[in-house]
């Protein structure tokens, strides 16, 4: 009966196929493949609500790591759909729930001695999306030891370090501008700007390295070379302009930067 349903899907007889799959559930509700097929069908039709119903039903009757992984992907899709002009960050609860389901998928896969590598890559990307930078770094360090020939992974780790670099660089350059326009100098502000510039440089160098490694592994350029060039320019600005200048300011005011 299940095979007949698949044949009908392949022949574009969706209604017949769905009827047969409903019969499959009535005859053997423990068969995980039935739920996975139904989820896949409704995702292909962009009916995420119906797809989620079958994920939840399948998990409640016969949980499997594949169903948890599918549930995680559905929640991630919902999260991206929830972003709009009035809510640019989207519904963060959805992405947190996606992480939770991904973790459950990994746990079940490892208990069943299945390869959890792709799930861990997904977990890394979810943490990257949520801005859990340190957790994403920890996961990426583990993954790069195993998937050292995956250009997408190197690229996304590059994105992570790029984000960390710019999160420090942008506000530090604004503070530097305020520092130069003020009448008095705050020694703590000078030290903080210097430390942020130094850490931004470290992150930018790591980002550039990962983008270049991604470029070396790619069969065609997907933007990693341009991304590496942007990080190279940021590093140059720090080394040639901002760091020498902030050091000069500190020296002129007798401020110890604790280099």
Let me know the average pLDDT: 92
By DSSP, the count of extended strands is: 0
Strand content: under 5%
Helix and strand element order: HHHHHHHHHHH
Number of helices: 11
Low-confidence stretches: none
Radius of gyration: 25 Å
Helix proportion of residues, in percent?
Answer: over 70%
Overall geometry: elongated
**SS class:** mainly alpha
CA-CA gap between termini: 72 Å
- What kind of sheet is the major sheet? none
Notes on the protein architecture:
The protein is mainly alpha-helical and 259 residues long. The protein has helices at 2-10, 14-27, 32-44, 48-61, 65-81, 92-111, 117-130, 133-146, 151-181, 187-217, 224-252. It has eleven helices and no strands. Helix 3 packs antiparallel against helix 4 and helix 3 (32-44) packs parallel to helix 5 (65-81).
Which properties best describe this structure?
259 residues, mainly alpha, 11 helices, 80% helix, elongated
Structure at a glance:
With 259 residues, the protein is an all-alpha fold. It has 11 helices and no strands.
């Amino acid at each position: 009966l299940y095979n007949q349903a698949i044949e009908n899907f392949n022949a574009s007889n969706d209604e017949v196929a769905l009827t047969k799959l409903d019969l499959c559930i009535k005859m053997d509700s423990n068969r995980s493949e039935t739920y996975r097929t139904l989820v896949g069908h409704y995702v292909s039709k962009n009916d995420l609500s119906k797809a989620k119903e079958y994920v939840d039903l399948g998990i409640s009757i016969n949980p499997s790591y594949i169903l948890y992984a599918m549930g995680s992907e559905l929640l991630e899709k919902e999260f991206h759909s929830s972003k709009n002009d009035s809510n640019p960050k989207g519904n963060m609860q959805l992405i947190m729930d996606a992480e939770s389901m991904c973790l459950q998928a990994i746990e079940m896969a490892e208990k069943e001695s299945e390869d959890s590598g792709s799930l861990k890559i997904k977990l890394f990307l979810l943490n990257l999306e949520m801005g859990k930078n340190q957790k994403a770094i920890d996961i990426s360090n583990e993954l790069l030891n195993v998937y050292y020939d995956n250009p997408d992974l190197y690229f996304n780790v590059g994105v992570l370090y790029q984000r960390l670099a710019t999160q420090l660089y942008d506000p530090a350059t604004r503070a530097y501008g305020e520092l130069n326009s003020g009448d008095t100098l705050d020694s703590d502000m000078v030290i903080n700007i210097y430390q942020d510039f130094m850490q931004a440089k470290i992150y930018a160098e790591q980002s550039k390295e990962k983008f270049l490694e991604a470029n070396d592994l790619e069969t065609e350029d997907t933007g990693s070379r341009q991304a590496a060039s942007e990080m190279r320019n940021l590093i140059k600005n720090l080394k040639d302009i901002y760091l020498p200048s902030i050091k000069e300011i500190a020296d002129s005011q007798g401020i110890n930067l604790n280099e």
